[in-house]
Amino acid sequence: MADEYRPLATLFHMDASTAAPAHLEELAHARLTADSTFRAGITTKLGELFIGMPRELTRQLNDVLARERSIAVLWNGIPRIMKHSYIVHAISEEILSTNDIEGVRSTRKEVQDAVETAQHEAAQTDDPYRTVRFAEFARL
To answer: How far is Cα 70 from Cα 63, in angstroms, rounded to an integer?
Structure first.
């Protein structure tokens, strides 16, 4: 595989030439200065630490971010009541799934009633922490 990212140590040991140390320095410098490199700013006795982002991963992350933006635009165009209904449904489905995994038997109606009760109680309380926590849970 030509695009395989190999550790510098591996490349050094694969190089049978007498110029292996010089090649290693060139490879290290090329990786450190590549466009896809994020430099940590931390230097050790072996050199500066960095993260090399594989090209394909960077492309896929960019695609995800672009799709997320378009989804956010669509989401913001939905009426608030529909968003609320979707979130309550998603929370209910997640609870049902978790209950199933844990072997807890519950009906959709029981879970939906529990979610609506928790939301109602959070709205009725003077404790802003409970309201905020329910909103955070809903966003998850």
So the answer is: 11
